[in-house]
Specification:
five-stranded mixed beta sheet; 22 strands; globular; alpha/beta
């Protein structure tokens, strides 16, 4: 953080001098020939990254190397080491992560006990520690840096590029990296209409799920009468398996604030709100500090860039209601009311917060805006697909080798994401098994399941809509063939039913009814009428609900019925769970160490599902078994388990 005297030097005629602040950062970095970056995103922090950071600070100092954790002076000794924290570096599967510059060495799964050797062998001795390098599962190659690791090398990181590199709590480093220059240009060199046009020409579409053209939304708000308008950053990320917005706020909060400033200039707003989930304490803390630092430097306040116009940003913590991710419910929550959606139109761009024109964009959308203004819309359009330009962040999780936060161009395929970046599918024992891929859930509770036939489908807003799915916020949950798709649909239905605000009868009662019907399927009580009613109810809820939560709540159910109807019907008509996960439909299993080979069970089975030689362990053919329990009753040795 810059002292106020130094900040005053960097202000000329009331305008912040960004090059002077960047030069100040250079002077503070002078004499440092080494930088050690510890990933301090939520995932790595949970794995012990802060303990690693503290151990590094102590050990580097004990080794006689001046160690600097905060760049607050300019008189550091030659040969000093700069120890800093970053936001999420993406490779969550291998955290905690430590990067050593200028060599670009990336150490994975670092623990405090590794620190002595890192300092002595690498920082002092210049030697690599092979045991801490990432090793490719196929071939055993040791990867020295992110450039060598397929997980990183096959991505196109633009929004995330700075997240694992910059110190998110050092505004001067963000400015040194070109930060706030796009905002200065928008406020001082461009008209509001020109800003809107540049975003419109870029083709940027909302990254929160709906994919509405950002430039069109801005133009609509700009054209509304009245001097008071608002910008809201939607950071109420609540999808299960999604952590993209959280990671951007933790790793590069100033990019979001700069995007809000540009949006404010475009529509004529002078006030903004960051609505962030209470469950994201690290993101809340870092964005609050970013706002305070921007105000201290004069980037936010009464005279932005000496323009004579003001811009202020407030941070509001949401109470964890998923429905508050919907625009009008979020507006109600900020106003101090119960977070419930209202009918549209009027749209928020026409009448939003306190009845004033309001633009709501999500975190990733706003973090993309400065890149477009800085590099032009033509630069942005070189990535992605024709109708979905740019890149998209995804949270990759589930039955995949490499889990974490990734960024790829629109038009990338599931096959490239899962098998190239993700490293392939794992079986129930955690072993690589690409043949066991079954499905991927995209878009969380608002999305749907995609199957092996969709592996080569280009991922963009329009292509996904064509197969009954959606980008959503960007969660990607990979599932292997031991996943019960009915249980998966029930999981998301349980979530949306819990999160329904209750305003719409169709959503409130329909989600409850669908959940009960899925329970009937899983517990063996369903019949043909159950499936028909489930599908009919799903269509009704989607058509008749007021907001996006209700309209998309049936998507996981409908996509399961579309792509996995045979599996649903096996539960209903055969009373069998093909994945073997539904306890109520479990088939009997013969324990080989108890079976005496007496053949009594085989003789009692009415469908000849049991086979085996006398005095040898027998086996049950799950496809033939009707789960009647005759074998269990006949066995005198307790060798058959799992039947109902």
């Amino acid at each position: 953080m810059a002292s106020q005297d130094q900040v005053n030097v960097a202000i000329t005629a009331g305008a912040v001098d960004l090059p002077a602040l960047a030069a100040l950062y250079d002077r503070r970095r002078h004499g440092m020939n080494r930088r050690i970056i510890v990933c301090a995103g939520t995932g790595c922090v949970a794995g012990g990254a802060l303990e690693v950071y503290d151990a590094l600070r102590r050990k580097i100092d004990a080794a006689g190397i001046p160690v600097v954790c905060r760049l607050e002076r300019e008189d550091h000794a030659e040969g000093s080491a700069h120890l800093s924290k970053s936001g999420c570096q993406g490779f969550c599967q291998m955290g905690p992560l430590v990067t050593i510059e200028p060599e670009g060495i990336l150490y994975t799964r670092v623990q405090p006990g590794d620190v002595d050797e890192i300092v002595e062998s690498t920082i002092v001795g210049g030697q690599l520690l092979d045991r801490l390098l990432y090793v490719e599962p196929a071939g055993g190659r040791h990867c020295r840096s992110t450039h060598d690791i397929p997980f990183y090398a096959r991505q196109q990181r633009t929004v995330l590029e700075a997240c694992g590199r910059l110190d998110p709590e050092d505004i001067l480093e963000y400015i040194h990296d070109g930060g706030y220059e796009a905002a200065r240009r928008a406020w001082m060199e461009m008209t509001p209409e020109a800003v809107c046009d540049e975003i419109l020409h870029s083709g940027l579409r909302g990254r929160g799920g709906g994919g509405f053209p950002t430039g069109r939304k801005w133009h609509l708000a700009r054209q509304q009468p009245g001097e008071k308008k608002y910008i809201i950053c939607n950071a109420d990320e609540g999808d299960p398996g999604a952590f993209m917005d959280r990671s951007v706020l933790e790793g590069n909060p100033h990019s979001v604030l700069e995007g809000m400033m540009i949006a404010a200039r475009a529509i004529g707003a002078d006030e903004g709100f960051v609505y962030v989930r209470l469950e994201y304490p690290l993101a809340v803390a870092r964005v609050r500090k970013a706002v305070a630092d921007a105000e201290r430097l004069g980037l936010l306040g009464d005279n932005v860039f000496g323009s004579g116009r003001s811009m202020r940003i407030h941070v509001v913590e949401g109470a964890g209601a998923f429905v508050c991710g919907e625009e009008t419910a979020m507006i109600a929550s900020i106003e101090g009311l119960r977070g419930m959606p209202r009918p549209k139109p009027p749209f928020p761009a026409q009448s939003g917060l306190w009845g004033k024109p309001t633009v709501i964009n999500n975190v990733e959308t706003l973090a993309t805006v400065p890149l477009i203004i800085r590099n032009t819309s033509a630069w942005f359009r070189q990535f992605g697909a024709e109708n979905s330009p740019g890149t998209k962040t995804f949270a990759l999780s589930g039955h995949v080798i490499n889990t974490g936060l990734i960024e790829v161009p629109f038009g990338c395929t599931l096959r490239q994401i899962i098998f190239d970046i993700g490293g392939g599918v794992i079986d129930e024992h955690g072993k690589p098994s690409n043949d066991s891929f079954k499905a991927v859930q995209i878009g969380g509770p608002s999305g749907g399941c995609l199957t092996a036939e969709h592996l080569d489908l280009p991922l963009d807003f329009d292509s996904l809509r064509g197969v009954g799915a959606m980008v959503g916020s960007g969660g990607l949950v990979v599932m292997n063939n031991r996943t019960c798709m009915v249980q998966m649909a029930r999981f998301f239905m349980q979530f949306t039913q819990n999160e329904s605000c209750g305003k719409c009868v169709l959503c409130r009662e329909g989600t409850k009814q669908m959940l009960a019907l899925l329970d009937d399927v899983i517990e063996g009580r369903a019949d043909a009428a159950t499936v028909d009613l489930l599908e009919e109810t799903a269509w009704a809820v989607g058509k008749g609900s007021l907001c996006g939560l209700g309209k998309t709540a049936p998507n996981p159910v409908l996509s399961t019925l579309r792509h996995f109807r045979a599996e649903v019907e096996a539960h209903v008509f055969q009373k069998r769970c093909p994945a073997g996960k539904c306890k109520a439909l479990a088939r009997p299993e013969i324990l080989a160490d108890r079976c005496k080979g007496c053949t009594v069970c085989a003789r009692k089975c009415p469908v000849n599902a049991i086979s085996g030689e006398r005095k040898q362990p027998h086996v049950i053919d799950a496809q033939k078994c009707i789960n009647c329990g005759a074998c269990v009753a006949a066995c005198k040795f307790g060798a058959i388990v799992g039947s109902n």
